[in-house]
Task: structure prediction
Amino acid sequence: MANTDSTLSFTEEELATEEWRNVVGYEGRYIVSSLGRLASLVRGVGPVVLRPRVGTRGYRQCGLVGDDGKHTTHSLHTLVCEAFHGKRPDGMQTNHIDLNRLNNRANNLEWVTQLENMRHAAAKRIELGLRKPATKRQTTPRIKYDWVKVTDEIARDVFLSRAAGEAVSAISSRHGISQLSAYLVLSGKLLPHIHEAMMSDEALAMSLSREKWSRRNSWHSLRYKLTPSDVVAIRRRHANGETQASLRREYGIGENQMSDLIHRRSWRWVTDEAA
Result:
C-alpha cells in the first residue's frame, strides 16, 4: 500500500501487524488501521494512505466523500475508535490514553464520558509531571450564624444596648449573632414586632434617631437630629401646603433627607399618632 504520510513514524513490527478496517458509514470507500492511519479506496489505483491535516485544537481532521458526493469533515480518532471499539455510545467521547492527540492508534483510544475524560487528563498530567497535585486550601474557619438564635429577648437587648451607645459589633459578639442580624433587628426587617414595640418609646427612639437603615442595607449616621414628634409635624405641615424648601430651612436638613422623610422612605416606623 502506498504511503503518502511522511509525518507518522511506525516500527517495522507495527507495520507488519497493522490491521485495516472499514470506516463506519463509508464502507468500501475508506479504511482505517490499528495504527491510526486512513486510506482511500476510491482513486482507482488501490488503497492510498492519506495525510489528515491537524486542526486548530491539535486533532487530525479528514474530509470524507460519501456515496452521495457529500463532503464531510471528521476527526480521525473518532473514525478509528468506531472501527475498532464499536459505534460511539450516547454521551461518550474519545479519550487519548497517553494524552497525545496525534497518537490515534486503536490501543490508545477508548470511549469515556466527559467527566472521565477530564479526570483522566488531570491524573495523567500529574503522572507526567505536567501539573502539580491540587492541595487543599488553608482557609480560616467561617463562623456560622443562625438567625433562629435572635430571640425576642435578644432583640430587645440589641435596642437597649445600642441606645446606650454600645457598638453593634460588641452587641452581636456578646449574643453570638451576626452584625447583619443586629442591623436587621434595629431596622425592623427582622422581628418587626419588637421594633414596633421598642420604637414606641420616644426616649429610646430619640437616642436611635441619629442612625437609620439605608436602602442599600448599611447603617450610617445622619447629619441631622430629629425626634419622632418633629417627623410627624413635618409631614402634617407639608400635607397642609407648606413647601419642602421652607421646612428644610427651619429644621436644617437636606433636600434628599426631607424627601425621604415626607415620602416615608425613612422614619417609616413613625406614625401620625406619635406626636
